[in-house]
Amino acid sequence: MQPTSASQFQAAASDGVPPLEEIRDRLYSYGLRQPGTLPHYTLSHLLIDSTGAVHIIDAGWDTDENWDRLLETLTALDRGISDVASVTVTHLHPDHLGLAARVRAASGATVAIHRIEQDGIRELSTPVRDEDSHAQLAEWGVPAERQPELAAAAQLRSRWPSFTADRLLEDGESLDIPGFDVRAVHTPGHTSGHLVFVDEEREVVFLGDLLLPNQFPGIGLGGSPDGNPIDHYLASLDTVSAWDSFEALPGHGYRFTGIAARCAETAAHHEKRTSEVAAVQHPDSTVWEIAGGLTWTAGWGALSGLPLLSALSQTALHLERARRLDSR
Fold first, then answer.
1. What is the spatial distance between Cα 209 and Cα 19, in angstroms, rounded to a whole number?
2. Which residues contact 185 (CB under 8 A, 6 or more apart)?
3. Which CATH superfamily hosts domain 2-125+162-279?
């Protein structure tokens, strides 16, 4: 894997945010600050079509700072907010979808997401009942004294803004961007309706959070999957490996080449995690016990709130997969 943007690579290694840069003719990227969480910025992509209109792929988090940065970026391209014709979003997370509502209100732009992501937004914007949270935590074997903390985290995660897209995409559909031929490819795993977008002529792939150069994305973070999201995710990595000769345009970090190698490295990470879970579990093991026996970047004892809830959720997915593979 080789970085192809010095400014993005440097920003990823610091607290910076990448500046506007041209990737191909009429194709640009720039960074938008992601508040209070890592990674610390989202990469938004701007495409200027053959009529002069602007199309956005991944809008970034909805903050006043990011809104001002978008307006400044459009001005640098001799455009304004009224020139934005569409916003297309790889997945439903607020660091990708968030600013789309404000852009649409100001410009009349059409917002597009995968059909399954619209279902996921509806599901996530429905508050979690306390009794359901506590039932899940008890099933995972969470000690009683930690359950209130994690139930509160589940409530926080469920405070999802309601949003209805204008266009619901399906696998294989082309985006309506004159002068570009960009195709949507359904790549579930990170979320159930995650999309990547492929431009065969310019030889680029907009990866969203499917594949990142400097971290391993979480899995099963939106929507109700049909099956285990880890299996879906590994299949999606196989799908995008076909564009190994293309330049990767991820949602965070920096653009790079070597898609197939990074896919293999990422898949190996998750296969290793499933193996680790299989090695420490026994038939009566709880998710809490297993998670406590695994290695975590921040350390198991340092995890709390949403990060701890996410760690338990990821462990549960790997446990289900490990037991299913062992029963074959």
1. 20
2. 171, 172, 195, 196, 197, 198, 239, 240
3. Ribonuclease Z/Hydroxyacylglutathione hydrolase-like (3.60.15.10)
Instruction: Write the single-letter amino acid at 102.
Output: R
Answer whether residue 158 shows pLDDT above 60: no
HSE-up of residue 6 (Cα within 13 Å, Cβ side): 0
| Side-chain half-sphere CA neighbours of 21 within 13 A | 15
CATH 3.60.15.10-classified regions of the chain: 2-125+162-279
What's the number of CA atoms in the CB half-sphere (13 Å) around residue 106? Answer: 15
pTM for the full predicted model: 0.93
Give pLDDT tens digits for 231-245.
Answer: 999 999 999 999 999
Determine the Cα angle at 230 with ends 227 and 235, to 5°.
90
**Given 3-state DSSP classes, what are the helix, strand and coil percentages for the chain, each rounded to the nearest 5?**
40, 20, 40
